[in-house]
Write a structure and sequence with these properties.
CATH superfamily: YqgF/RNase H-like domain
CATH class: Alpha Beta
Distance between the termini: 20 Å
Shape: globular
Number of domains: 1
CATH topology: Nucleotidyltransferase, domain 5
Radius of gyration: 14 Å
Oligomer: single chain
Number of strands: 5
Strand order of the largest sheet: 3-2-1-4-5
CATH architecture: 2-Layer Sandwich
Largest sheet: 5 strands, mixed
């Protein structure tokens, strides 16, 4: 059993997948957004290839917990994904994930061009790792 994490953006979708023990998240790839159906097909294929049993999508809430226009776009994407794939889809609060990833990449002295390529995949990894950690906290 593996879980897939997604960081859904307007231009790219970051993808991460857990290990089989659900302990760690690894950044897998970045999907360049095209047509919605193609994006959903690519996610479905990645999920099938990785034997994913659940998908977690980062939900970009405002700092006060309210929905923004971006949050509504992601919720609509989740609705489309749920109709396209027969795997449970959950959300995880992704507030400050992008800021955390950007700061880490800057501290690692990664060039601006490489940061752009890596940030979505790493954001998905941070989202998924947060979700995996929260699962372990609720089990104890």
């Amino acid at each position: 059993m593996r879980i897939m994490g997604l960081d859904v953006g307007t231009k790219r979708i970051g993808v991460a997948v857990s290990d089989e023990l659900l302990l760690t998240a690894q950044g897998r790839t970045t999907i360049e957004r095209k047509v919605l159906k193609d994006d959903l097909d690519e996610i479905a294929n990645l999920a099938k290839d990785s034997s994913v049993s659940e998908i977690v999508v980062g939900l970009p809430l405002n700092m006060n917990g309210t929905y923004s226009a971006k949050t509504k776009e992601v919720v609509e994407f989740i609705g489309e994904l749920q109709q396209h794939i027969d795997i449970p889809v959950k959300t995880y609060d992704e507030r400050l994930t992008t800021v955390q990833v950007e700061r880490t990449l800057i501290e690692a002295d990664v060039s601006r061009a490489k940061r752009k390529r890596l940030s979505d995949k790493l954001a998905a990894q941070v989202i998924l790792q947060g979700y995996l950690d929260s699962m372990r906290r609720t089990v104890k």
